[in-house]
Write a structure and sequence with these properties.
The chain contains eight helices and 14 strands. By secondary structure, it is α/β, with parallel strands linked by helices.
Amino acid sequence: MSQYSSSDQAIQFDHIVIFVSDLDRAINDFSSLGFNVTRGGSHGLTENALIIFTNQTYIELLAVKPFYTNPLMAIANRLGILRWQAEKRRSIYCRLLRWVNGDVGPVDWCVRVTDLAACADCWKEGRSDVLNSETFARERTDGEIIRWHLGGINNSNLPILLQDITPLDQRVPLADAVHLNQGAELREIQFSVADPAVACGMANKFLGPEFGGDNPLMVGNVQISFVDQSVQDMICLSITYSGKQIEQLDTRKTYGLSIKLVPA
């Protein structure tokens, strides 16, 4: 079976998604930790803000717009109508709906690819539950529209696949990657999962043949690893900065993340 590896298909880590109930409050919380939080704009029923790093990765803070928290939308969600529609279409919406129907905190992760269709075809060789890709758009606060494709499977052990339509610099502007806490690159992510062996096996099979055993997976320049959630119940991020000592940020303000600033 062919593999879609980060080395020969230019897979890059893109971002981690954090669902929050109040976007303004989340922006204030992360700003108080020294991050420059940029309002990303609106995409349909959601709005977001971005914490961008110098290696063009970011943390996405995602919230449902107040209009969509009305009783009718709540009833539709509770009855499973929206999920039924997504499952009928067998599209990536099946996975995205979990983001806004669960608890606040980390809900997913995305990698950037140059050819989503080719990657999805390779994944289909190894499993049957590859979802149909969809096109998405976001209106930035300056009115500019950016577009991208999303695809993948209905299992968060593997990331969502993202292919830009509009230029990457419009979606992830590096001019905003300047932080008071001197944070620079997102260097490492450690995911807390129910079964690290299964997660590692899937990553090895679909993201990179070099990943195996206790070795981390390099997705672009970001190191990915998996640990048992019974040992560690938070997702851990390491972000480089110009300081000399490791700094652990206040977890009361990070929505289920453990964020460390580590010397570059």
